[in-house]
C-alpha cells in the first residue's frame, strides 16, 4: 500500500488505496472497526507505485491520482460499467456491490442515487445491499402458449416492481407487440398477441421464443424481461417426441397426432398419452407409456439370401381387437424389405423372409428394424424405438477368398469352407466330412505364394519382406518358417505385420547380389501336418548407388525439392535421404533411377553431404549448401478482378534460392462449394505458380476466385502469401506487411450495336461496365483481326484504342470467325476474353465530276440528310459525345492532375497536421442542434427567465407531463399533421417537431421519442401499403413526423460524426478550398478558375502569377509565416488568405476577419503602405475596378503585415494585430483589440463577398470580369429565382448560352473542370467510403434500417417492389442528413465556405444524393453538365451504397439495452442547451391555437376519455388563464 484516502457516501465509508507495485487502485468498503471488503480493482495502466498525493473532490466525486509517469483524474464510482441488476448490486447482499451504485429500475441502469428519478419512491432505486433484484418470478398460467392460442390473459409477477406516477402505465411487450397492463400489487395482467403478430416457427423447431418485457410509459424503457414461447405440438410426428417435449403436448395414438387439446382426439376407443410437461393430472403420462419396442436381448444375425424369422419384444400395445395386422421391415441400401408379423401378447414374431444386399465390399451390413401396425380403420402406425433396434446382414463369401480367412471368421456366423469357397453351413451341399470349420481339425489347402514386397533389398540384408498369397496359416504361430534360397528369413518380432491367411513378414540376412526363390512352411489344422508352399515368388539382392542430385543449394528454411539420380534407388523397404544428419523427406515413390526429397531446415552457409539409406545400408553423394532465405520487399499491383490473371511483380532478395515459387491467396468462402486447398471450414486457398526471373525479381498471376464468392458485385479484400520452399514467414506476407489483395467484380464489355463498328477516325470506343476495375491501359489487349489496337484510355464504362491504319485481315487473332470477311474485335482482359464484334473500314471514294447544278442539288440533299441524322441521334448522342470528350480530356490531363494532386497533398499535409492535435473547428453543441433543428427558424432561448411567471411554470409542467403520455402525444402529432397547410403551414409543423425534439432532449427522453417515431411510422407504412403509396414515404420534410425523424437522425449521428465521418468531410472542404484559391476567384460573381461546378467557373482565361508573401508575426520579425497568394487577388482576399494561414484550425467565429484588419506592405528598410481594395482614382466610366496586388507591383517574397484597422488608410502608423505567444499551446497567435463594429458599418460587407469599397450610385464595381448581374446588391426574389434556374442549367441551355462546342470544351473551361475533378477525386472517394462504412454505423441507424426491413417483410412489399427498403433508407440518411451536411459543412464546422467553394460542395452533395437514387436517369440534352461530370463514377458509388446497406443489414441485431445506451448518450450531448420553459411556451403557443380540434379527437375515443386526456389538456389552458386574471 502506497497511499490511502477515505470518503463517505450515504453513510458508507469508502477507502481508496493505491498499491506499491501493481499499478492498481483498490476500492474498499469499511463496514466496521474490524471488517472491510474489497469491491473493485482499477488497473491504472502504469508501472510503479501510486504516490501518496491522492485527493478526492466530494462535490464532483472525482479522485485525483499522481504516479511517477502521469497525473490521472477519474470518477470515484463507475456505475455505468454494470449493465445488469445482478452485476450492479451483486448477488450476495451487502457483500459484493458498489456502495455508490444502485439499480434504477425504471431506467434499467446502474446509477448513483442522485441520478435516478425519485429514488426514494417504492423500489425505483435498489441500493447495493438490496437482497433481491427486480425480476419476473412467475408468468401465470405459463410462460408458453400454443401458437394457435392468441389474445389470452396472462399474469406476470414482478419482484421489486416500482410504482409509477399518476397517469403513467405499464405495458407488456411481446417482442414488438404492445399490450396494456393493469397492476395489482406486484402482478401485472396483460393479453398475449394476436396470431398475425406472433413470429413464425422456423423449420425444424417446435417453438419460437419472444422476449416478454415490461415497459414503462414514464421512462419509455423496457426495464425487466423474460422469455416467452409459442409452440406447435403438430411438429412432432412420434409419440415419444410429442409427450417428451417441453410443452403441454398430448399424443392421440389412433389418430397419429400430437396436440395441445387432447379433447379433439375424437375416436371411440382413442388412447391418449398425456405429455410429461402437461400439468393435467391424467394417466397414462410420459414417453414410457407410448407403444414402443423394447431392447433386444441378443444380436440379430441375418445371413444374406437365407430365410429367417425374428422375435421382437414390445410394450403398451393397444388391445388386440383394435389392431388388424403387423409388419416388420428393414431399410437395406435405401430400400425397404418387409414381411408380415404376428402378435403374441407383447411379443411380435416377424414371418420368415430372405433379406439381401448387393454390395461385395462389405462382409457385414447393419440395418434398421421398423415395426408397423394397422388399426381397424386401416391407418398405419409405427412403434417408437428408443433403443435403436437393428440387425446384422452378412455374407460368408465377402472378403474371405481362402480357407484360412473363412474358418477364422466369428463362429456365430457359421461360415465353413466348402466346395473351394466360403459358404453358410446350411448352404453347403457336400458331405460334412469334406468341410473345413474353425473346430473340426481339418486342414486347409497348402499355401500358394503370389508375390513379395519389396521385390529387392540391399546385399547387407535387414529388409523386412512381406510374402503374400493364400492360406498362409490360420494364425502367426502356425507359420513355422520362411526361406529365401537356402537362408532362413527371421520371423521374430514381426507378428504385427501378419495378416491371417494373406501374408507374413520376415527379416532378411546379408547375401551377394543375386535373385533367389522364396518358400514357407505352415502347420495344418490337425496340428501335425506340415504344409509346404507352392507358387513362384523370388527376391533380389542389389547394390544401389547415387550418381548425382540437383539443386546443390537451397534456402536455410528448408523445403527445397531435391531430385536424386542413381541406379537401383528403389531397393529395400525403408528408403530414406539425409543432408548431413537431418532428414530430407522423400515426397514421392522412389523409382529405379530417381528419388525426390524435401530438405529440412539448416543454417545459412552450412554445407553437408547428401546421403541415402536403404534398410540401413548407407550411400553418400556430394555436398549440399544452405543459402540465404528469400526475402520479399514489395508486391505490386495488389488489385485484381475475380477472374484473376493479372500479373503481379514481386521484388526482393535471394528469390532464386527457392525451387518452388507460388502465390497463395486465402479467401473466406461465401458459399459451400469447396475448391483447391481447404484452409479451415470457411476458407479456401488458391495457389498459382510464379516464375522467378532473377534473385531480385519474379512474376506471379492472380488466381481465379469466382468459385469462392457468392456475390459478383462487391469488392473483396483477401490475404495472400508465397510458397517458396520451406520459408514459412512468406506464407503470411500480406498480414505481416498490412497489405491486402483487393478483388473487384469482373468487367463486362458490350457488343457492338448490330455486331459492327464502322471506323470513323482513328479512335475506337468500346463500352461496358467496370472496365477500369483493377487494371491499367497497358494490360488490356485489344485485337482487331490479327493486329493490335493500342489502348489509350480506360474508364469505368468505356475503353478507347487507336485502330491500325491498314485494314487488318478478316477473322479474329486466331484466324477464326472469317465468315463475314471483316476483322473481329476481341478484348483480352486478364483471364477473360470478350468478342465485341466486327469492324468495318471506310471504302475510299472515287471522285466523280458532276455538272454544277447537279452538284448544288447533291449538296442540298446532303445538308438535309445531315440535319435529319442530327435530329435522329438527339440529345443523348450529344451527351455521350461530351462524356467521351471528358474521358479523353481526363486522360490527356493525367500528368497535370498528378502534379497538381501531389502539390495539394503536400500543402494539405501542412493544413491537416494540426487536426490530430488541436482538432477540427466544430461548431458548439448548441450551434449544431440549432443548425440541424432550427435552420431558418427562431430558436428557443438558452436560459430560463430570471423571474418566470409562477402560473406559466405550473401550466408548462402540466403540459410537459401531458407530452409524456404516449397516447396524447400520438394524437397531438397525427391531428396537427392532418391540419390543412392553410391553417398550419409546413414551417410551423417543422417548428413543432423541433420544439418537441428539444423537450425530449431536455427531459432525457430520447428512448420515448424513438418509441413515438416508430409507432407513428408503423401506422404510416400500414396505411401507405393499403393505398399502394409506399414509395412516397419519408421523401419530404413537410410533416411533423418527417421532421422528427430528420432531427432524430441528426442527433444520433453526432457521435459518429465527431469520431469518424467529420474528418474526411473537413479534409475534402479544405482540399476544394485550396484548389479553388490556387486560381483566380472573382470577388463579385463568385466564379473561379478551378471549380467542380461548371456554372461557377470563369469562362475567361485570366492570366495570373503566384506570389509568396512573408508575414512576420512578432515585432522583431523572428517568427514568420509564408503565405501563397495571387497577383490578381483583391486586398481583402489577400488578408483572408493570410488570416486563414495563421488561424488554420481556429473556429472562424473567434478569429478576426478581413474587414477588421488592414494589410501593410513593407518595402525596403522603412517603406510602409496600407493597401486597400478601393481605387481612389475617379472612375472613367460607369465601371470601377477593385484594386489587386499587381496594381501595387508587389513582388515575390515581399513582406506583408496584418495591422490594426485605420479609419483613414495610411494616416498614422498602425499597430500590429497579432502577438506571438510561446506559452500558449492551443494557439500561438493572440488577438489584440479587434473592433468589428466600425468596419462593418463603414463598408458594404456581404457574407459571401469579401470586398471593402464605398458604393457610388451609378457606378458598378468589378474585379476580374464585368458582369451586369454581379450580385453586388442584395438580390430580389426574381434574381434568386433566376440564379436558382441557372444553377441547374442543362446541356441544351449551356450549349445555347455559352456556345459550348466540343472543340471549345477542350479549349477553355472543360480542361480546368476535369483537372479539378481529378485532383479532388481521392478526397471524394475517402469521404464516400468513410460515410458508407459499415463498421462505424451507429446502432440507432442499424435499428432504424432493421425496422424498415421488418415492415417491408410484414406487409410483403419487397415481392412487388424489391427496391422499397432501399428507397426508405435513402430518403432518411442521404436526403435527411448527409447530402445537406456536404452542401453546408458550416452547419458542422465553424468555418466560412464562400460561394466558390460552396458551389463545388453543392455538386458533391448532389452526387451523394444521386447515387442513393434507385431511378436510372439517362443523360441527355437536358442533363446538367455537373451531372455529366460524375456520370461515370456514379455506378461505382452505387455499388458502395449497396454494400453499405447489405453490410448494415448483416450486422448483429441491436438489443434494447444497446439502443437505449446510445440514445441516452445522444441526449447527454445536447442536454441543457436550451431553456425548457421557453421551449414549452413556444410549443404551447402553436398547439393552443388547435386545441379545439385536438379536444374533438380526444373526446371521440373511450380510451382517451378514461385517461382524462382532454381534461388534462384543458387544465393547462385554465392554469394559464387564471394567471392572466390574477394579473
Q: What does this 3D model show about the protein?
A:
The protein is α+β, with helices and mostly antiparallel strands. Helices cover 26% and strands 28% of the residues. Strands 22, 23, 24, 25, 26, 27, 28, 29, 30 and 31 form a ten-stranded mixed sheet that branches. It has an eight-stranded mixed sheet with strand order 11-13-16-15-14-17-18-12, with no helix packed on it. Helix 12 crosses helix 22 and helix 13 packs across helix 23. The two termini are 67 Å apart. About 6% of the residues have low confidence.
Count the E strands: 78
Structural class: alpha+beta
Spatial separation of the terminal alpha carbons: 67 Å
SS summary, helix count? 30
Shape label: globular
* Major sheet characteristics: 10 strands, mixed
Specify the helix fraction band.
Answer: 25-40%
Rg over CA atoms, rounded to whole Å, is 45 Å
Amino acid at each position: 500500500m502506497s497511499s490511502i484516502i477515505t470518503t463517505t457516501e450515504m453513510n458508507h465509508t469508502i477507502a481508496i488505496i493505491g498499491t506499491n507495485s501493481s499499478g492498481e487502485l483498490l476500492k474498499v468498503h469499511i463496514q466496521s472497526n474490524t471488517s472491510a471488503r474489497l469491491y473493485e480493482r482499477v488497473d491504472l495502466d502504469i508501472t510503479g507505485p501510486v504516490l501518496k498525493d491522492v485527493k478526492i473532490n466530494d462535490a464532483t466525486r472525482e479522485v485525483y491520482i499522481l504516479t511517477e509517469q502521469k497525473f490521472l483524474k477519474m470518477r470515484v464510482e463507475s456505475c455505468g460499467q454494470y449493465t445488469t441488476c445482478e452485476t450492479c448490486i451483486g448477488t450476495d447482499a451487502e457483500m459484493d456491490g458498489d456502495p455508490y451504485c444502485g439499480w434504477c429500475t425504471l431506467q434499467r441502469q446502474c446509477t448513483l442515487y442522485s441520478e435516478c428519478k425519485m429514488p426514494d419512491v417504492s423500489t425505483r432505486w435498489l441500493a447495493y445491499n438490496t437482497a433481491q433484484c427486480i425480476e419476473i418470478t412467475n408468468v401465470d398460467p405459463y410462460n408458453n402458449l400454443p401458437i394457435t392460442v392468441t389474445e389470452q390473459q396472462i399474469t406476470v409477477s414482478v419482484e421489486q416492481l416500482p410504482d409509477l406516477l399518476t397517469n403513467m402505465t405499464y405495458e407488456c411487450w411481446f417482442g414488438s407487440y404492445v399490450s396494456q397492463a393493469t397492476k395489482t400489487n406486484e402482478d401485472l395482467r396483460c393479453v398475449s398477441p394476436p396470431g398475425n403478430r406472433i413470429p413464425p416457427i422456423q423449420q425444424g423447431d417446435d417453438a419460437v421464443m419472444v422476449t416478454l418485457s415490461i415497459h414503462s410509459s414514464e421512462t419509455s424503457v423496457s426495464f425487466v424481461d423474460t422469455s416467452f414461447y409459442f409452440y406447435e405440438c403438430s411438429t412432432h410426428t412420434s409419440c415419444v417426441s410429442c409427450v417428451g417435449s417441453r410443452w403441454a403436448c398430448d399424443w392421440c395414438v389412433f389418430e397419429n397426432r400430437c396436440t395441445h387439446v387432447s379433447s379433439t382426439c375424437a375416436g371411440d376407443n382413442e388412447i391418449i398419452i398425456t405429455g410429461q410437461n402437461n400439468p393435467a393430472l391424467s394417466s397414462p403420462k410420459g414417453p414410457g407409456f407410448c407403444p414402443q419396442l423394447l431392447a433386444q436381448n441378443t444380436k440379430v444375425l441375418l445371413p444374406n439370401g437365407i430365410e429367417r424369422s425374428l422375435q421382437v419384444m414390445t410394450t403398451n400395445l393397444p388391445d388386440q381387437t383394435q389392431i388388424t395386422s403387423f409388419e416388420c421391415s428393414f431399410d437395406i441400401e435405401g430400400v425397404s424389405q418387409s414381411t408380415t408379423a404376428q402378435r403374441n401378447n407383447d411379443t411380435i414374431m416377424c414371418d420368415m423372409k430372405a433379406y439381401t444386399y448387393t454390395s461385395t465390399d462389405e462382409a457385414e451390413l447393419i440395418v434398421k428394424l421398423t415395426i408397423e401396425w394397422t388399426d381397424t380403420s386401416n391407418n398405419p402406425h409405427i412403434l417408437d424405438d428408443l433403443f435403436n433396434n437393428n440387425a446384422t446382414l452378412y455374407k460368408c463369401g465377402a472378403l474371405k477368398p481362402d480357407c484360412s480367412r473363412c474358418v477364422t471368421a466369428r463362429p456365430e456366423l457359421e461360415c465353413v469352407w466348402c466346395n473351394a469357397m466360403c459358404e453358410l453351413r446350411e448352404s453347403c451341399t457336400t458331405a460334412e466330412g469334406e468341410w473345413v470349420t474353425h473346430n473340426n481339425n481339418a486342414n486347409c489347402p497348402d499355401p500358394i505364394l503370389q508375390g513379395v514386397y519389396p521385390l529387392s533389398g540391399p546385399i547387407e540384408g535387414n529388409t523386412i519382406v512381406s510374402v503374400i498369397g493364400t492360406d498362409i496359416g490360420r494364425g502367426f504361430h502356425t507359420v513355422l518358417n520362411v526361406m529365401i534360397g537356402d537362408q532362413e528369413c527371421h520371423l521374430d518380432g514381426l507378428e504385427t505385420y501378419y495378416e491371417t491367411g494373406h501374408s507374413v513378414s520376415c527379416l532378411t540376412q546379408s547375401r551377394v547380389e543375386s535373385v533367389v526363390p522364396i518358400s514357407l512352411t505352415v502347420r495344418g489344422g490337425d496340428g501335425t501336418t506340415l504344409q509346404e508352399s507352392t507358387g513362384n515368388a523370388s527376391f533380389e539382392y542389389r547394390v544401389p548407388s547415387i550418381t548425382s542430385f540437383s539443386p546443390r543449394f537451397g534456402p536455410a528454411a528448408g523445403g527445397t525439392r531435391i531430385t536424386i539420380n542413381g541406379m537401383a534407388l528403389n531397393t529395400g523397404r525403408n528408403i530414406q535421404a539425409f543432408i548431413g544428419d537431418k532428414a530430407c523427406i522423400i515426397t514421392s515413390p522412389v523409382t529405379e533411377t530417381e528419388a525426390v526429397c524435401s530438405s529440412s531446415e539448416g543454417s545459412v552457409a552450412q554445407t553437408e553431404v547428401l546421403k541415402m539409406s536403404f534398410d540401413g545400408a548407407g550411400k553418400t553423394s556430394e555436398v549440399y549448401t544452405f543459402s540465404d532465405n528469400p526475402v520479399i520487399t514489395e508486391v505490386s499491383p495488389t488489385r485484381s478482378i475475380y477472374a484473376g490473371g493479372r500479373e503481379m511483380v514481386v521484388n526482393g532478395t535471394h528469390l532464386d534460392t527457392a525451387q518452388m515459387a507460388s502465390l497463395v491467396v486465402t479467401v473466406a468462402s461465401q458459399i459451400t462449394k469447396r475448391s483447391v486447398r481447404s484452409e479451415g471450414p470457411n476458407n479456401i486457398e488458391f495457389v498459382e505458380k510464379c516464375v522467378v526471373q532473377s534473385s531480385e525479381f519474379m512474376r506471379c498471376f492472380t488466381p481465379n476466385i469466382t468459385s469462392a464468392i457468392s456475390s459478383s458485385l462487391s469488392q473483396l479484400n483477401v490475404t495472400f502469401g508465397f510458397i517458396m520452399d520451406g520459408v514459412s514467414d512468406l506464407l503470411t506476407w500480406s498480414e505481416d506487411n498490412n497489405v491486402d489483395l483487393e478483388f473487384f467484380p469482373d468487367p463486362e464489355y458490350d457488343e457492338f450495336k448490330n455486331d459492327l463498328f464502322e471506323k470513323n477516325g482513328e479512335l475506337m470506343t468500346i463500352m461496358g461496365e467496370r472496365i477500369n476495375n483493377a487494371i491499367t491501359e497497358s494490360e488490356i489487349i485489344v485485337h482487331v483481326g490479327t493486329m493490335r489496337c493500342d489502348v489509350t484510355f480506360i474508364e469505368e464504362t468505356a475503353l478507347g484504342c487507336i485502330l491500325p491504319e491498314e485494314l487488318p485481315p478478316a477473322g479474329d487473332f486466331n484466324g477464326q470467325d472469317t465468315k463475314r470477311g471483316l476483322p473481329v474485335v476481341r478484348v483480352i482482359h486478364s483471364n477473360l476474353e470478350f468478342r465485341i464484334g466486327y469492324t468495318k473500314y471506310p471504302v475510299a471514294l472515287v471522285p466523280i465530276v458532276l455538272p454544277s447544278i447537279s452538284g448544288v442539288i447533291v449538296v442540298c440533299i446532303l445538308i438535309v440528310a445531315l440535319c435529319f441524322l442530327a435530329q435522329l441521334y438527339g440529345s443523348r448522342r450529344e451527351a455521350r459525345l461530351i462524356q467521351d470528350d471528358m474521358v479523353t480530356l481526363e486522360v490527356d490531363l493525367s500528368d497535370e492532375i498528378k502534379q497538381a494532386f501531389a502539390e495539394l497533398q503536400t500543402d494539405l499535409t501542412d493544413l491537416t497536421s494540426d487536426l490530430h492535435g488541436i482538432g477540427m473547428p466544430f461548431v458548439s453543441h448548441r450551434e449544431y442542434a440549432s443548425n440541424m433543428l432550427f435552420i431558418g427558424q427562431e430558436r428557443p432561448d438558452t436560459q430560463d427567465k430570471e423571474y418566470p411567471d409562477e402560473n406559466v411554470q405550473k401550466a408548462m409542467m402540466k403540459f410537459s407531463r401531458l407530452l409524456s403520455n404516449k397516447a396524447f402525444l400520438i394524437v397531438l402529432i397525427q391531428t396537427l399533421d392532418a391540419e390543412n397547410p392553410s391553417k398550419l403551414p409546413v414551417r410551423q409543423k417543422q417548428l413543432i417537431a423541433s420544439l418537441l425534439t428539444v423537450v425530449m432532449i431536455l427531459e432525457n427522453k430520447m428512448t420515448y421519442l424513438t418509441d413515438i417515431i416508430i409507432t407513428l411510422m408503423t401506422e404510416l407504412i400500414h396505411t401507405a401499403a393499403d393505398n399502394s403509396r409506399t414509395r412516397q414515404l419519408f421523401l419530404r420534410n413537410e410533416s411533423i413526423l418527417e421532421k422528427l425523424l430528420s432531427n432524430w437522425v441528426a442527433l444520433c449521428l453526432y457521435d459518429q460524426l465527431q469520431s469518424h465521418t467529420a474528418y474526411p468531410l473537413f479534409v475534402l472542404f479544405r482540399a476544394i478550398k485550396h484548389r479553388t484559391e490556387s486560381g483566380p476567384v472573382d470577388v463579385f460573381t463568385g466564379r473561379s478558375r478551378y471549380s467542380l461546378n461548371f456554372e461557377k467557373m470563369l469562362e475567361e482565361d485570366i492570366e495570373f502569377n503566384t506570389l509568396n508573401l512573408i508575414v512576420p508575426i512578432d515585432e522583431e520579425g523572428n517568427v514568420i509565416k509564408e503565405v501563397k497568394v495571387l497577383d490578381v487577388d483583391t486586398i481583402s482576399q489577400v488578408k483572408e488568405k493570410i488570416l486563414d494561414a495563421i488561424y488554420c484550425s481556429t473556429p472562424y467565429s473567434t478569429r478576426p476577419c478581413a474587414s477588421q484588419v488592414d494589410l501593410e506592405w513593407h518595402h525596403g528598410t522603412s517603406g510602409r503602405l496600407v493597401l486597400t481594395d478601393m481605387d481612389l482614382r475617379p472612375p472613367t466610366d460607369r465601371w470601377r475596378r477593385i484594386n489587386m496586388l499587381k496594381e501595387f507591383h508587389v513582388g515575390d517574397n515581399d513582406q506583408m503585415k496584418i495591422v490594426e484597422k485605420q479609419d483613414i488608410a495610411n494616416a498614422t502608423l498602425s499597430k500590429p494585430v497579432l502577438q506571438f505567444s510561446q506559452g500558449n499551446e492551443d494557439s500561438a497567435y493572440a488577438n489584440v483589440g479587434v473592433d468589428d463594429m466600425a468596419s462593418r458599418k463603414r463598408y458594404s460587407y456581404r457574407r459571401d463577398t469579401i470586398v471593402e469599397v464605398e458604393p457610388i450610385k451609378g457606378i458598378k464595381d468589378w474585379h476580374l470580369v464585368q458582369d451586369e448581374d454581379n450580385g453586388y446588391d442584395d438580390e430580389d426574389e426574381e434574381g434568386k429565382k433566376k440564379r436558382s434556374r441557372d444553377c441547374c442549367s442543362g446541356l441544351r441551355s449551356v450549349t445555347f448560352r455559352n456556345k459550348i462546342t466540343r472543340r471549345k470544351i477542350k479549349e477553355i473551361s472543360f480542361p480546368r473542370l476535369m483537372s479539378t475533378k481529378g485532383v479532388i477525386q481521392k478526397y471524394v472517394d475517402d469521404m464516400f467510403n468513410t460515410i458508407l462504412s459499415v463498421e462505424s454505423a451507429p446502432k440507432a441507424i442499424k435499428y432504424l434500417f432493421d425496422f424498415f426491413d421488418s415492415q417491408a417483410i410484414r406487409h410483403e412489399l419487397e415481392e412487388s417492389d424489391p427496391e422499397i427498403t432501399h428507397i426508405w433508407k435513402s430518403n432518411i440518411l442521404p436526403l435527411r442528413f448527409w447530402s445537406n451536411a456536404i452542401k453546408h459543412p458550416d452547419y458542422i464546422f465553424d468555418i466560412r465556405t464562400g460561394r466558390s467553394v460552396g458551389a463545388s460542395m453543392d455538386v458533391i452533395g448532389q452526387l451523394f444524393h444521386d447515387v442513393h437514387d434507385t431511378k436510372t436517369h439517362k443523360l441527355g440534352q437536358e442533363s446538367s453538365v455537373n451531372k455529366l461530370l460524375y456520370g461515370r463514377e456514379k455506378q461505382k458509388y452505387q455499388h458502395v451504397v449497396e454494400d453499405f446497406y447489405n453490410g448494415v443489414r448483416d450486422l448483429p441485431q441491436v438489443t434494447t439495452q444497446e439502443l437505449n445506451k446510445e440514445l441516452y448518450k445522444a441526449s447527454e450531448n445536447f442536454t441543457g442547451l436550451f431553456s425548457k420553459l421557453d421551449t414549452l411556451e413556444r410549443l404551447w403557443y402553436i398547439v393552443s391555437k388547435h386545441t379545439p380540434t385536438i379536444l374533438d379527437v380526444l373526446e371521440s375515443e373511450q380510451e382517451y376519455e378514461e385517461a382524462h386526456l382532454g381534461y388534462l389538456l384543458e387544465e393547462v389552458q385554465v392554469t394559464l388563464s387564471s394567471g392572466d386574471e390574477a394579473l
